[in-house]
Predict the 3D structure of the following.
Amino acid sequence: MAIVQMQKLSICANKKHRKEILEFLQNLGTFEVITDEIDDPELKKKDTSSACSQYLKSADSFDQALKVMSEYFPEKGGGISSLTGREEITRDEMNRVITNNREYLEDAAQILKDKKEITECEGVILKDNNQITSLQPWKDLGIPMSYEGTKETKVFLGTIPDPLGADELYAKASKDLAEPAGISADILSTAPEQSCIAVICLKKDSDKVEENLRSIGFTRPSQMVTGVPADEIRALEEDIAANEKRIAELKDDISCYTGRRKEYRIASDYFRSRAAKYKVLGQIPQSENAFFMEGWVPAGKVEQISKILSERFGALVEKEEIREGEEEPTLLRNNPFSAAAEGVLASYGLPRRGHVDPTFIMSIFYVIFFGMMLSDAGYGIVMFVGCAVALLKFPHMEKGMKKMICLFFWCGLSTTFWGMMYGGFFGDAIDVIAKTFFGYTGNGIVKALWFEPLKEPMRLLVWCMFFGVIHLYTGLGIKGYEYLADKDIVGFVCDIVSWYMFLTGLILILLPSDLFTSISGMTFVFPPFVGTLAKVLALGGLVIILLMSGRSNKNWALRIALGAYDLYGVTSWLSDVLSYSRLLALGLATGVIANVINMMCQMVAGSGGIIGAILFTIVFLLGHTLNIGINALGAYVHTNRLQYVEFFGKFYEGGGRPFVPFQTANQYVEVKEEKSL
């Protein structure tokens, strides 16, 4: 529950050491470089854009080569690559790749060249297949499609929209010609949308024949080949076979490189990191003999970094004061349990320096509320066991993914706890199984350790609102802590204590009332002094808020008006407390849907037996998988809402800038020796 204190450092060193120092800081990964605060006209910056572009191009070549290999020769387990994380390698492996990087670049270029040729061959095959398709209707034509006839004859090749017989075609083509007409009419193929025809006539009759043919919708082919269609089809098929053979050869060539996937990944990360280093190199100011840079580093690392830079590179390292208006980056540090929820906080906005990091407190409420919403022991066991297996099987997964899975691990444990308290294990699955397959007729095997929400929903609603009040009071308390940290005692009393008094008084007045009893079915009887205390607290808080909320204004009339407006904020407190009824709603939804699924299982199982057991199992697995997916998503969304809207709304401002250290741009691998101090 802490924001790491950051220290600003300035570094001045001999220009000949700039690359070594940058490489050291990059491998260290704990120094955020500031590139826009040193402004001296006598200092110049080196143009490294060309080098950056070249390194990024090399990295992209390896990325594309790896993508090509994955396309044609997928690796086993590729579907879980998001969990495996970066592969650990030794420094020696990295150095070997650096030494042979030219050879690997040639490999990548050859792979991409092969891929380009494969794409071209596939384009030719597609074109050939399309042409074969267009020639298929003409395959019975025994003359070249470019043949126009002899000195005495004229050939018409084309299509008509309506299917006709040869006799009909002859009759229409020879219309108004003297009998017997010198015409040969053949139907080459017929399809629903058109018929392909070949008509041969005497040249002296060609104009009339063409006119007759056009009257029945005759059109010449849009694309005609010069040869006989059957011969052309045969040539195209041979061309397709040749291109397919070439594709197979190219794929075989690519397969020869698959054993070097690891080296290509290392090379890709190496060039990407080089590009990042040269980008920074082009942003730092330099003189003829020295270079200068500033940056942020965690305060606990300052002495060690300064010592190494001074002793190894002869650099001058000094601590700098934060300039007016300068924003210090935010780096969170929490225990393993709370660190899992840092992503939830970061999605809303990081805290600024000088404010409270609420991650620890938020993580406790987050896990509790998620469990109350999903609220089934069976679902919780599935969740935390699945997450535990993933964490053990993939220890090197990305930090963000690892934090998310850790969070759901704790949420799974919480779900299991609340499921046991409510008596839900895949709904009432155990009772249904016992009744369906073992003839059990009792009142229930699994008993709730606390109570069953389906039988006492109002009781659960009261508890949900009680937890909500605790959550909201905690948020208000954090705001009070910040007042005290700033030594604003007046603000603490007027804005925090007054609301505690007012709200607590109202709650103590409400609990023993007939209205609360009729709604909740619960009766509270307090001693007389508690009622008096409640009225004193409510009245005292009301007076303080009324008179002191607008204390910055000297006009008492306006001051009281502002106080009255702030008192109206009690309605927002009421709506916030009612928002916690979603703990009841989602918890009931999970249980009701689970019970309905079990009822469906019982129906398909009939009286039992092997077939019944199989059907029961299928419906059970499908139904509960769907239920856990939908309700886990709902629990995640609504738990976030309770933190973002209700809890953070009482104290949290956010607006912090994340700490972005200068580090290796590794996408595939991680060098074991590259560890922070």
